[in-house]
Design brief:
8 helices, single chain, 3-stranded antiparallel β-sheet, 5 strands, mainly alpha, disordered N terminus, two-stranded parallel ribbon
């Protein structure tokens, strides 16, 4: 009976160990396979790396030429942009200079015409002084007191000067008229006041300025001559005023310059683009080979990484199965030892069929405290299957139940 039970326990332990053993064998085979594959992939990766480096070195000159052409194209575009801005700034400067010169010329002409006409009017007044002194405006001023006459002349002259200054800021004939009115605002009030004073002297209501009632005839003539000279000077300055020294940029000239610049820039850009395109064509094949070699190298490295991970997993499985097998073998050994001890006890029990109470008592008192007779004892909380269990006991005789595994005299400690 005990032998059958031992064989049954051994069979169960062997069956339990079969799965870890087969798993260990499979894991070891996988580990060996993956190690061989890792070595193969390492050689492949090394070859791919060498091929990639060779293709990269072969493509380097073409790529360098392509980068150089692209850099030159970018530099050319930048320079053309800078030159275009400089040309625009120069054109704007020349146009502004020409506009300023035209305005200065127009202003000189306006002032010359206005001043000359005003001088001509003053000369006519001097030549016809007698008629002017007897004119209605002079007679009207003579009817009022001096203060009011001065106020009217000064106020009218100031208003005329303001109107003339406003019109003089315009261009063309209106500007010339404004200059003429501005000068009249200075001449007419003075002539009207002098004419009123002369009329007052003639009527005996004022004293002459030069202690003479009538001026010599040459004085008006001299004044008229001087005014005529000023008229000629103003007219001459208007007629012979220097024009703008710079020529305006005509539309045709500007379009031609822009067309030539655009044509030249287009030719340079086109040449640079062709150079870039040619460099790109020359670099296309080496670059494609380099990229393909780099992709193959990266793929080989990924494959190597995957297989290395699988190898690590297989080694981990081998380690786990090995630990499980060691544990199962240790447990199997313990079970066998226990079964041997149990078979031995059963044999002794069969030999003492009579089962004398004294011997059973002595056998039971091999431990302190004494244990009641039973077919087998196991430690409480252990993995034994009984049928009886005990706590810590002192072995004072023969350890028939195998409770003191370390032989120190204390069982189930």
């Amino acid at each position: 009976m005990a032998g059958v039970l031992a064989l049954f326990v051994f069979g169960v332990a062997t069956a339990a160990a079969q799965d870890p053993a087969s798993g260990l064998a499979e894991a070891e085979q996988d580990a060996v396979h993956f190690e061989a594959e890792v070595e193969s992939l390492k050689s492949k990766v090394s070859a791919r790396e060498g091929h990639y480096r060779a293709t990269a070195e072969h493509a380097a000159p073409s790529l360098s030429a392509l980068h150089k052409s692209q850099t030159q194209l970018r530099r050319l575009r930048h320079e053309l942009g800078v030159h275009g801005k400089e040309a625009e700034a120069r054109i704007a400067q020349l146009e502004e200079q020409h506009r300023q010169e035209v305005e200065d010329h127009d202003k000189e002409v306006r002032n010359g015409v206005g001043f000359g006409l005003a001088a001509l009017v003053a000369a006519l007044i001097a030549l016809a002084w007698g008629w002017f002194r007897a004119s209605a405006p002079v007679a009207a001023l003579a009817e009022i007191d001096l203060a009011r006459a001065v106020g009217i002349c000064v106020g009218g002259g100031l208003l005329t000067v303001i109107v003339g200054a406003a019109l003089g800021s315009a261009t063309g004939a209106i500007g010339a008229l404004g200059s003429f009115i501005f000068c009249l605002g200075l001449i007419l009030p003075t002539a009207l006041l002098l004419g009123r004073h002369s009329a007052e002297v003639q009527r005996g209501r004022a004293k002459p300025l030069l202690r003479r009632e009538r001026l010599p005839t040459w004085v008006p003539m001299a004044v008229a001559g001087l005014m005529l000279v000023l008229f000629m000077a103003g007219a001459g300055s208007a007629i012979f005023a220097g024009g703008a020294s710079s020529q305006p940029l005509s539309t045709e000239l500007q379009e031609a310059a822009e067309g030539a610049s655009a044509s030249q820039a287009g030719e340079e850009l086109e040449a640079a683009r062709e150079e870039v395109a040619e460099a790109g064509r020359q670099a296309a094949v080496p670059l494609a080979r380099r990229n393909a070699a780099r992709e193959q190298f990266a793929s080989a490295r990924r494959s190597l990484g995957n297989v290395e991970q699988q190898l690590v997993s297989a080694k981990s499985r081998v380690h786990g199965f090995t630990r499980r097998l060691v544990a199962l073998e240790a447990q199997e050994q313990r079970e066998l030892e226990k079964e041997e001890a149990r078979a031995l006890r059963e044999l002794e029990e069969q030999e003492s069929e009579a089962g004398e109470a004294e011997e059973e008592s002595v056998a039971g008192c091999d431990y302190n405290p004494c244990l009641a007779p039973a077919s087998d004892y196991d430690c409480e909380g252990g993995s034994g299957d009984g049928p009886a269990y005990t706590g810590t006991v002192e072995v004072i005789g023969t350890d028939i139940y195998g409770l003191d595994e370390d032989g120190d005299g204390i069982g189930c400690e």
